[in-house]
Fold this protein.
Amino acid sequence: MTVQNFANHKRNVAGFHYLLGAMLILGLIVSAVNVVMQWHTANLMSALLIMLLFGCCLLMGLFVRIFPLKAQDRAIRAEEGLRYFILTRKPLDSRLTIAQIAALRFAPDAELIPLMERVIAENLSASEIKQAIKNWRADHHRV
């Protein structure tokens, strides 16, 4: 397994992110054109149902991706909250966003506390946090 770092930590599944997304969007567009073309014919109901089906599939594709990410965010918040509590005996600062907490998970224990203080003081973005990490702590279990 390759060493994970800022440059290669993002995961994109080409079949899902690009192929399926493009096919669903194209199908929705083509079905909308078909509805317009069938507007005054007996085939209008079929054309509308096909467009509705593509719209439903597009929404399902989005939700299939969003729902696991929300569950993962909750797990990351709990894991990082516990890790921070073990290191400091204090809860996570409530000013931290989930994006910041998720970015901080890549920081090893030795870098976490000073980096978290910097994040709170400077309100760093997730990308800035990840770039500030010197010794990357890999996360191979993400969705």
Remarks:
- Residues 83 and 115 are 14 Å apart (CA to CA).
- Residues 14-132 form one domain.
